[in-house]
């Protein structure tokens, strides 16, 4: 399904208006950013860029789309003819997928004719908001699992097919090692995992027969689901019988999966039973409505869990299911020159940052693997060895600080040029490694799941002065 | 994108196992049902059936799908060859979309060869869980809005493109009158709505110029966004100026939209300003992070709001973003005869209802527009004028009751036959009307948003006896 019409109606109303007021071809620059991280966290893991770039690159309206728009009797014929011929002329700068990004920092800045940029708002936000949300939740969960493998199991509870497919990719970016979703595994070339459901057991006269049938077909993939009837009375004893038969035939069993009940207690007793029976390497997988805090609690109780399968609470980010990224005009061409633009608001934190910007991550000059702060600057500023800056957090007293002894690395990179040259990593495991490297450079306190310390993000004095000038102009208007 | 592989890996592992143990062609019947309504509600509005039927009807594997499965080196060649030829042979009985459905009642029962039915689990759950969740949330919100029009505005915060598209359809089913999502509007033939964003205002030198430009292009669609700078100091006064100019030119303005700030106070003052200026018919639309309880509160405060535009809290059902519908085996063929099947559990409410079932809604014989209870029965039971039944709620004392003086209406209807004849309503407004009719038959207390009274759902004595027999057999095993 092509997504050119996956656009709020008001974008088309405005685009028609821009066309009729002859402003559609003015160059415009919009930023995508967010104001509040999910789950009271301190950052978001950026994701979704690859799909955005693919959509923008191939953006054009089909004759059927145009016929539909014409049927609404709301748009001028000239505008619709113009749309028929329209192809993407936008360029995109963005943070690479897998970058930890803080509030107010642009994930992505898009530059192009005002009309084109406006018509892409809804789709770009939809993709970036969704995938960054799930990547961030996957980071929380895999971080709580403390290097134990986490499998993404959520397809049946995802909010529609795309949420299952692209959510699985985002889950890999955030740290998962595999997915149960075969289509996502195929599309993104990642491992598909999963053995049996309760229905397998129920389709046989009894549990032992079901386990034996499985072991015969998959002698090297015997991960047996032990909670269909009773984990400790039936499931684990039957599994151990089959494990012994497997070993006698020259195969080592994989282990068991527990999907209900008190996981902490069941896992401890199952571990002891398997150890006593001579299967200390058989793994225990847990998979019942888990989230980061439950995993932490299970591990704190000493539950001997080796793997986690995480469903609905990952694939919907159910504890915080919305990332409210926005898409705001930063600059607009006027008579051939760029003019910075601002959206002001009675709410101080909703006032936008005007102009073409760049985000720098500052590393300690004496310990370059250690990030110390981010700085949002105007794109044409020279970042020397000293920066005069003001906190980007509108809730703190806004004193000037002088930043020194850093190495500054610009984060926004060109990923799509107007001639449609795209440079953007596709492989979710490459992106996962990039994310892990970037996370390792942040302070541990910033990565705490509860009450994280906020990483310092600054604005340069020039950016703050420009913002204040535009606020003054708008409010004296 | 075809969705045959949008299936958990374990379904394929089991399907291959069924094939190799020669049980793949046994007839099986699975039920889709849920145990707990979102937001502590008492029911769910069923949705998603049309898409399920379309997917099942067209279900087949492409050569590319088969090549991918082969590359996993996990499945037998015979099984993969069998899949190459496989077409849907399932039949589906279901509640029509728009039916209020209570815990444990089958939304849908699917019957067909075990392998086919197993391979459809993930996709069917994904679609039904998502769309029923959003339809239910839309019902909550439109019910709180008390007959004022509600527009679905969530595309940019939906969990991926499909969540925006099918979520918009579900929102219409649940009671919304229109959507901002142009693609959804096209696909489902529903109204697309929306006027301007802040970017329109910002692209002009000042607000008044922006409003005037809009009114010139859309003289009969002047719904002006008044909160770019300051609602009462700038937005409403400028809107009134333009309204007067429009009226002088023979057009009536539509009204204003407020998207930030204290909506209750701003709306009251804006209303007074527009009334005093001679525009008592100009409407006020509110659209900032609204949900059912906020709408109720605004209306209780007397906020003079005429329309609502609802975004993220509707399209993600953010206060309760998961409907945990499950897909459980109810019966399986054994030597040419159906055997009822059960999934038992230490948790009483997780024990399933075995066998082929039908759901009846009972209406008061003396007041047939008044539903009094639901009864889940075995499909081959004769429902006469008297039913011996037991509450389906496992948390109440399970006394027998005798139900009399009712008219019983079966709810599960055949919607897809094995020869692929589908009968299933597509038009979301027809489904919305059906939902409204069904809701009007339920007690008001069942429809309360906070602490609703639970509608009585019963099981027939025969069904309870069968369930107990199978529990006894499984636990003596």
Descriptive overview:
The structure is a homodimer. The first copy, chain A, has helices at about 10-20, 50-55, 65-70, 75-85, 115-145, 160-175, 180-190, 200, 205-215, 230-250, 265-275, 290-300, 310-315, 430-440, 460-475; strands at about 25-35, 45, 90-95, 100, 110-115, 150, 180, 225, 255-260, 285, 305-310, 325-335, 335-340, 355-365, 365-380, 385-390, 400-405, 405-410, 415, 455-460. With about 475 residues, the first copy, chain A, is of the alpha/beta class. Chain A has a 6-stranded antiparallel β-sheet with strand order 13-12-1-5-3-19, with helices on one face. Chains A and B meet through helix 1, helix 3, helix 5, helix 6 and helix 7 of A and helix 1, helix 3, helix 6, helix 7 and helix 8 of B.
Give the secondary structure arrangement, pairings included.
The structure is a homodimer of 477-residue chains.
Chain A: H1 9-20, E1 27-33, E2 44-45, H2 49-57, H3 63-71, H4 77-85, E3 91-94, E4 100-101, E5 108-113, H5 114-144, E6 150-152, H6 161-174, E7 178-179, H7 182-188, H8 198-202, H9 207-217, E8 223-225, H10 231-248, E9 255-258, H11 263-276, E10 283-286, H12 292-300, E11 307-310, H13 312-315, E12 326-334, E13 337-340, E14 357-364, E15 367-378, E16 387-391, E17 400-403, E18 406-410, E19 413-416, H14 428-440, E20 457-460, H15 461-475
Parallel strand pairs in A: 6-7, 6-11, 8-9, 9-10, 10-11, 15-20
Antiparallel strand pairs in A: 1-5, 1-12, 2-4, 3-5, 3-19, 12-13, 14-15, 14-18, 16-17, 16-20
